[in-house]
Amino acid sequence: MVWWLAAFGSPTWAQPAFRHVNQWLEQQIRYADWKQARSDHFSIRYLPADEPVVPLVLAEAERVYAWFAEQFQFTSDEAVPLILYGEDGQMQERFGWSGEEKASGVYYGGVIYLLSPRVLWPEMPATALKDGRLAERYHREGPLPHEYAHLYLDAVANSNFPRWYTEGLAQLIEYEWIGYEWLNDDNHLQRQSLYSLRQLNEQFDRLANVALAYRQAFKFVQFMVREHGETSLRAFHRQLAQAVSFERAWQAVFGEPVEQSYGRWLDDVRRGGYR
Ligand SMILES: [Zn+2]
Question: What would the pLDDT profile of 42-82 be if each residue is shown by its tens digit?
Fold first, then answer.
């Protein structure tokens, strides 16, 4: 399942705060006549057909919230806005995607957009909602840990990072927490030449093999965390939050330039043991 597709072009990094306000306002207008519900830390807009699954989505969101509060000491004073789409086409229309581009979730400008679990797995029987199987599947395969990781990093570091880093982190978190990793025939690291750091930095979403670019970002971030521990990650994000540049923060926390870390990671891949 793909929930990482960032096909809406490069967001402007320059004015993140403005971008958020814009998104919030636009959201208020766009979804004004949708139904709305609240939980402790989230607000959700949805259409009547999704009324039955709204408690499940909010419960999963609160679970993710609690995990981030514990792991990253990240909490939010204001309700995090969620939009729940009841069909594929709504997501595509919202982000101007072509018919082939799909995602079960998207983080953009302080808002998390989700495809209803009802639409994600139409083959699941109606009883799956009552007996908890739908909630369990939404926890194991749903997009919330990944998208909330993007929200967390953006809130803390204010867009002070390249695209590959936030995608690497989001995949690491969903892997560590729910065991999901995106592996397919196209993105095995051992079977092809890999992208350079420069390519990831400059063209992340436009590379021919996006699945490979995502996989590289994930495994590189994971390599750093395995070497330096999870506390290093929090220290790194604190530096980014203080508007230290990505490169300088990296050097300060990991003790070498990001290019050097990347080179060592490539050597590690060459030694094998990677998928
Ligand atoms: Zn993502």
Answer: 999 999 999 999 999 999 999 999 999 999 999 988 999 99
Q: Tell me, in angstroms, the distance from the centre of ligand 1 to residue 223's CA.
A: 19
Asked, for residue 4, whether it belongs to a domain, the answer is no
- 45 and 97 assigned to the same domain: yes
Provide the token pair at 212.
Answer: 């490979």
Range of the domain at 83: 16-151
Measure 173 CA to ligand 1 centroid, in angstroms.
11
Contacts of 273 by beta carbon, 8 Å cutoff, 6+ apart: none
Interacting residues of 252 by C-beta distance below 8 A, sequence separation 6+: 239, 244
Q: What amino acid is encoded at 61 in this protein? A: A
Q: What are 218-266's pLDDT values in tens digits?
A: 999 999 999 999 999 999 999 999 999 999 999 999 999 999 999 999 9
Give every strand in the sheet of 42-46, ordered side by side. 35-38, 42-46, 80-85, 111-115, 105-108
CA of 150 to the centre of ligand 1 (A): 7
Cα-to-centroid distance, 51 and ligand 1 (Å): 26
Is residue 5 included in any domain, yes or no? no
In sequence order, the 6+-apart residues with CB closer than 8 A to the CB of 21 are none
Of 84, 119, 151, the domain-final residue? 151
Assign 194 to helix, strand or coil.
coil
Which letter does DSSP use for residue 5 in this model? -
Residues 205 and 232 in one domain: yes
10 in any annotated domain: no
CA of 121 to the centre of ligand 1 (A): 20
- The total domain count for the chain is 2
